[in-house]
Amino acid sequence: MRIVQFKNADNTTQVGLVDGDHLRVVTDMQSTYALTQKAFETGKSLVELVEDRAGTEKIAYEPLIANNQILLPLTHPDPYRCWITGTGLTHLGSAASRNKMHQKLASSDPDELTDSMKMFQMGLEGGKMNNGEPGVQPEWFYKGNGLCVVPSGKPLVSPSFALDGGEEPELAGLYLIDPDGKPFRAGFAIGNEFSDHKMEKINYLYLAHSKLRQSAYGPEMLISELPDHLQGRSAIKRGNAVIWEKEFLTGNANMSHNIENLEHHHFKYELFRQPGDVHVHYFGTAVASFADGIVVQDGDRFEISIPEFGKPLVNPLKQL
Q1: What SS3 string covers the chain?
Q2: By C-alpha distance, which of 245, 218, 205, 98 is closest to 156?
Q3: How many other C-beta atoms are found inside a 10 Å radius of the C-beta of residue 51?
Q4: 142 vs 118, which has greater pLDDT?
Q5: Looking at the predicted structure, is the pLDDT value of residue 91 above 50?
Q6: Contact 266, 281 (CB under 8 A)
Q7: Which residues, in sequence order, are bridge partners of residue 319?
Q8: Is the dihedral of CA 164, 166, 172, 176 positive or negative?
Q9: Tens of pLDDT along 1-43?
Q10: pLDDT digit string (tens) for 259-293?
Q11: Mean per-residue pLDDT for 90-100?
Q12: Handedness of CA 29, 32, 33, 39 (dihedral sign)
């Protein structure tokens, strides 16, 4: 089951259940944030609430996409109470790319592990949470708050001081902290954890700077169970031409850390368990065009799709 937030011509907002080429309007719900609060009040799951409230009124989906009326699938009414964070080195492909980027010297011993590969190996050996017992903690980074995220259809802006602006196709977990201070996973979405890889390549200690960029997630939020194996596609289009395209694997079956372990190590901090706050947490990428030598240009379009998540996440690049 997948849901979206969208705005009407009068700028009011609604929640819709994806039903083929249409959205079934979820009655008396202006936002997925309010829907989640209703789950806390009633004790019902989001799936149950949507099943109860999705009426017969249908709205054509494609015109909403064409007019940029599809919003982020979960937001906080106060953007300063939305945390955007993530973790890396959770997928094999990303580890190989990061290792190349972080080689300290071209003449160094190829058998000598970089810090990136050491972190990845730690995850391979102990990154799974089993029976409530946490695994090793992953890498972690901060991206910003609700002011730095954009929905599908809107540009990802690369600031004037940036050296690059490249896509990172991945899953994002969407959460709300309940009144008792416990994290509640509302669902998952496709994410583009947009980053400055050239800056990161200078020195891995620049990772924090490279992550302070906009990002995107959506357009749909999967509120039913996440499959363990997911196969997606990431592409960059320049005009009508596809200049780069690659398939990627994600989901627990394709990760060194399982999602449960990543969630534990993010929410173990009391700072991240403040009732009412929203969290968007990126789970790491498996591929990136930068690793294949692609240099993006102003106006290029990032398109990321995973069939189980419905419509693709599409964002043009705007370089300042």
Answers
A1: CEEEEEECCCCCEEEEEEECCEEEEECCCCCHHHHHHHHHHHCCCHHHHHHHHEEEEEEEHHHHHHCCCECCCCCCCCHHHEEEEECCCCCHHHHHHHHHHCCCCCCCCCCCCCHHHHHHHHHHHHCCCECCECCCCCCCEEEEEHHHEECCCCCEEECCCCCCCECCEEEEEEEEECCCCCEEEEEEEEEECCECHHHHHHCHHHHHHHHCCCEEECCCEECCCCCCCEEEEEEEEECCEEEEEEEEEECHHHCCCCHHHHHHHHHCCHHHCCCCCEEEEEEEECCCHHHHCCCCCCCCEEEEECHHHCCCEEEEEEEC
A2: 218
A3: 13
A4: 142
A5: yes
A6: yes
A7: 158
A8: positive
A9: 999 999 999 999 999 999 999 999 999 999 999 999 999 999 9
A10: 999 999 999 999 999 999 999 999 999 999 998 99
A11: 62
A12: positive
Say which amino acid occupies 249.
L
d(CA 97, CA 220): 29
Sheet holding 241-250, edge to edge: 156-158, 313-319, 301-305, 230-238, 241-250
Tokens describing residue 203 = 């020195």
pLDDT band at 96 (very low <50, low <70, confident <90, very high): low
Q: How far is CA 111 from the centre of its chain?
A: 33
Each residue of 184-203: pLDDT tens digit? Answer: 999 999 999 999 999 999 99
Greatest distance between any 2 Cα atoms in the chain: 66
Place of tokens 């540009």: 155
